[in-house]
Amino acid sequence: MATTVFAQNEKKDTTMTFHDIDSVVISDNGKQVSVAIKGAKNNKDTEFLLNEPSKDAEKQSVQYSTSSNEFRIYDKCSDDPTKPAYFVSCNLGIDLGIIKNMSGGLDGKVNSLQSIEISWLNALQLIAKLPHRRNAVSLSLGFTWRNFRRTDAKRFIPTEDESFYVYDYPEGSKPSYSRFKVFSISVPLLWEHTYRQVKNKKGKTVGSNFQLGAILNFNNYSSLLTKYDLNDKTVEEVSKLDALEPISIDLYGAIDLWKGLGIYVRTSLTNLTTQRNYYDYKTSTAYVTGTEMRPVSIGVKWGF
User: Fold this and answer.
1) What is the average pLDDT value for the chain, to the nearest integer?
2) Helix, strand or coil, per DSSP, at residue 6
3) Which of 83, 252, 278, 292 could be 78's S-S partner, Cβ–Cβ 3.0 to 4.6 Å?
4) What does the pLDDT look like over 213-227, one tens digit per residue?
5) What is the model's pLDDT at position 210?
């Protein structure tokens, strides 16, 4: 061990001479090359671990990917796995989950099993892999579509200022559902850790990841749709709203379980909807319009 450590700290231009060598053994374990000199007259057994990685290790570092559904647009990956690597890619994976509203009381209650979130978070992704490729930081551009749905005796009702509140269905009607839909442009900033690496059928090294970080949402579209039966007729009420906060922030965590399939959790750190404060001077009453929506979702993801 002492000889090995000494050899690793040798300068590259150091020259050592061995006399009457019995054998030289060169070993390549796929990560590093070692040279063992045996039976030298002046130093019988000496082993050197070369500072340069093996050719197999270099090949693996170039082919390394975190997804089997990824298309590289730009790739700047060093042959030396101890140096950072950068690439831009497009990932076809999606997130599909169910939503629960954690605020808003009874007015903000939604049917979680019918409230759905669909996200494509890696439509365009810039990844900076840190030395040794196990950890990375990614900045992405994607999209999120959320559909909040309630099937109880309450419905979403629009206001004159394009906000909304929750109230009863018309008397004598038979409720079907009322839904609030939101579309956002999402910008995730995530830390990624690769905890497992395997080779697929094409010989490409694919990593299983754990992800954690924040998602910045630019909320740019929302609408209401309520459907019920009244007087033997089906009534549909459709309204386009201006009920969203321009920007909201989510906390996001995900883990890959098997061949690109994983689970994720996403919770909003800020209110998704806009609440407006009013004061009625005639009655000296202050009130708030708009229902608070602060969703948390859990679901499955495909293709990191």
Assistant:
1) 77
2) helix
3) 83
4) 999 999 999 999 999
5) 87
Whether pTM > 0.90 for this model: the answer is no
Percentage of the chain exceeding pLDDT 90: 30
> What is the Cα–Cα distance from 103 to 41, expressed in whole angstroms?
80
3 state SS of 179: strand
Q: Residue 27 has which token pair?
A: 């070993």
Whole-angstrom distance, CA of residue 187 vs CA of residue 90: 14
Higher-scoring residue by pLDDT: 60, 73: 73
The pairing of strands 276-280 and 261-268 is unpaired
Q: Which residues pair with 247 in a beta bridge?
A: 218
Q: Amino acid identity of 195?
A: Y
CA dihedral 77, 80, 84, 85 (to 10 degrees): 10
CA atoms within 13 A on the CB side of 128: 5
Closest C-alpha among 244, 95, 102, 108 to residue 165? 108
> Which sign does the torsion angle of CA 220, 121, 212, 138 carry?
negative
Name the least confident of 129-133, 142-146, 176-180, 294-298.
Answer: 129-133
| CA–CA distance, 277 with 17 (Å, rounded to integer) | 85
In tens, the pLDDT along 176-221 reads: 999 999 999 999 999 988 876 665 555 555 667 889 999 999 999 9
Q: Which amino acid is at 235?
A: V
Residue 181, CA atoms < 13 Å, CB-side half-sphere: 12
List, as one string, the DSSP characters of 153-171: SEEEEE-TTS-EEEEEPPT
Q: Which alpha helices (H) appear in 152-247, and where do they start and end?
A: none
8 Å CB contact between 276 and 289: yes
The helix/strand/coil state of 216 is strand
The count of other CB atoms within 10 Å of the CB of residue 30 is: 12
